[in-house]
Design brief:
The protein is mostly helical. The chain is built from 4 helices and no strands. The model has no long low-confidence stretch (mean pLDDT 96).
Length: 119
């Protein structure tokens, strides 16, 4: 593994952050800087924490800490998407919620891998 770009969890998080960004821009104007901003920031935080953790991978506990932050941001993003789903069902966030559930499981497995196998 030469780069964080080789991590499946990073690539998925990046792609999903782009999707969240586009969906959030379809919110009503008064929500763009409230709900929209919050969901955009949390989705981008997932990928950014994976990158920062990877940058500290020499220090295993730092790597794990940032992966846990990424997982927490993912949960925040899911919570925001669930709120958007209830308030604006026409935006159809079901697919994104499913993708984030799968990513959450992959990220959790990756954290377990780093805890047990990373040297």
């Amino acid at each position: 593994m030469k780069s964080y770009r080789d991590l499946d969890v990073y690539n998925l998080a990046f792609d999903y952050a782009l999707e969240v960004h586009h969906v959030s821009l379809k919110l009503p104007k008064f929500e763009l800087y409230e709900q929209g901003s919050q969901v955009r920031r949390s989705s981008k935080s997932v990928k950014d924490n994976i990158v920062e953790g990877y940058g500290r991978r020499r220090y295993k506990q730092d790597f794990i800490k940032f992966l846990v932050y990424a997982h927490a941001s993912l949960l925040e993003c899911v919570s925001q998407l669930e709120m958007i789903q209830k308030l604006y069902p026409e935006l159809e966030t079901d697919d994104l919620l499913t993708k984030y559930d799968i990513l959450g499981a992959k990220l959790f497995k990756f954290i377990m891998y780093v805890e047990k196998e990373w040297k």
